[in-house]
Amino acid sequence: MTAPADSRCAALARRCVPLLALLVMLWDAASLLLRASRSFFWYDELMTFHLSSLHPFAAIWKALQLGVDGMPAGYYLFVQWARQLPADPHVTLRLPSLLGYLLTLACVYWFARKRLPAAAGLAAVLLVSLSPFREFAVEGRSYALLVGCLAVAAVCWQELGERRMMTPLFGLFLTLAVACHPLAIVTLSCFVMAELAWSLSSRRVRWGAWCACAVATAPFWLGLPGLLHYRVAFAGHFWSRSKLTFILSTYADYLVLDPTAALVLLAVIGIAVGGVAVGCFSRRGAAPAGAGFTSPEIVLIASFLFYPVLLVSLTTLLGAGYTSRYGWPGILGLSLGLLYLLRGIWAGPVAAQLIAALLLAFAVRCGRELQAAVKPAPPMEARWLHLTQLSRGEPGIPVVIGSGMTFVEAVKYAPAELRPRLLEVIGPAEAARLTVGDTVDRTNLLLSGYTPLRVEERASFEAAHPRFLFYSGGGSDWMTPYLLERKYSMRLLAKDAGFLVYLAER
Fold first, then answer.
1. In 283-373, where does DSSP find H-type helix?
2. Tell me, what's the pLDDT at 48?
């Protein structure tokens, strides 16, 4: 092939790669919007739904200060704005998360594209799109929005000193990130380390960047009283207290690998990226040969890569709660760290083969989503219709839902005929003794002050209701073992997909 022909092929590839990245993002946006419209809310999302329905915003602030939810007020401000759109609440409530996910895709592309060939940027988009992080694009909680704001902040930080307005934009999106989740304050350490590496390598100080990091802490300090109240209210028996073993399980979840395989892959990426990051400080920022990324950028990637390690260690030390979704900023380090690990292939033919493999995996998923899209939208869950029919045979007695999580779902989705009879029995002491913790019971008790949740304390309920319908099963269901322990008569009426309906009598 002649040199001009090679040049034309290269130019065509440069134009096609950004187009493919854009098509991936557009497909994800369309398919995720459809999924959001067809998916019921789960317990945490219903917390967001009920609290974001409060007006004025001062009512949300008051509820958060009392510890009703651990999410900060800044996130609820985003959700309230989104819910003003005239659309299905199942979509509008999840729009901030979808926006955060799309920002993540766009920004990993631009962060990679600045230093590496376009193929690397497309690979970053596909890696994030094919990861479990995509599921959080249709969850009405703040995790995807947090990562999206951090991704924009990373791109702005990369452009500091090269383009106008980057410093205020960096500060703005870093502040928005901290406003999205109480633990996001820890993500500032990633930028602090990267900026320190930049100062060491350039022997200069960018005071604007340091001021931006300082200003970004403001949402944390504003929400600290509510966070402390939440900790006092729930720390005793939090459902998922942090421990160091969560480090390995977190990366296994993110990489969809066996824990051992996840550890090996993390070690390989960590040695490659972490070695340069450490060398940046020990050799005053000596640039690694052929790295593509600058040394400070590699420090930022390494900081995000090991962010879950830092977060698990910190929450374990403080005796706080942790679950793997808290560490999702690590997806930025994983995706960009893989690009760095494979830095030698992006200008050669192997890059095309890798992109083809990733596109094939993406196409397979697209086919599955198309098959799901042609099916009719799911109706109201059959279990609530069945429970309604059973309740007609036992009029005048309450219908008790054993699981507090299932109870909140029932109040939202059960037929209107059944809702006035639905009841949750609150027993934090029994929940702490018989299940993983009392978090759900305490949360629903607080939430009942702001929403139409009918809850009753265990002792008063037992005194007033010797006979009731009981819906057994689901997360946090302490009542089933309690009723058996107290020798209640339990007559089985129905069995539905793991849930049991009894007529309970004392």
1. 295-305, 307-318, 330-341, 349-373
2. 96
Q: Write the single-letter amino acid at 180.
A: C
Q: What is the per-residue pLDDT for 283?
A: 58
Q: Which of 301, 282, 285, 296 is nearest to 341 (CA)?
A: 301
Phi-psi region of 473 (alpha: psi -120 to 50; beta: other; left: phi over 0): left
Q: How far apart are CA 336 and CA 124, in angstroms?
A: 7
* Contact call for residues 422 and 453 (beta carbons, < 8 A): no
Kindly state the greatest CA–CA separation across the chain: 91
| Per-residue confidence (pLDDT) for residue 32, from 0 to 100 | 96
What's the pLDDT score for residue 236? 62
Domain boundaries, the chain: 17-373, 382-505
Token pair belonging to 138: 């249709």
Beta carbons of 212 and 171 less than 8 angstroms apart: yes
Residue type, 330: G
Q: Is the pLDDT of residue 381 over 80?
A: no
Beta strands in 435-498 (DSSP E): 455-457, 467-472, 489-496
Look-up of token digits 């050669």: 348
**CA distances in angstroms from 247 to 131, 133, 185, 263, listed in the order given:** 18, 17, 19, 10
Q: Which two three-digit tokens encode residue 188?
A: 């500032």
Among 66-75, 119-128, 398-407, 466-475, which stretch is predicted with the lowest mean pLDDT?
A: 66-75
* pTM for the full predicted model: 0.93
The gap from C-alpha 485 to its chain's centroid, in whole angstroms, comes to 38
The token pair that represents 91 in the structure block? 């979509």
Q: What is the mean pLDDT of residues 309-334?
A: 93
- Angstrom distance (rounded) from CA 111 to CA 102: 14
**For residue 502, what are the β-bridge partners?**
470, 492
**12 pLDDT more than 90:** no
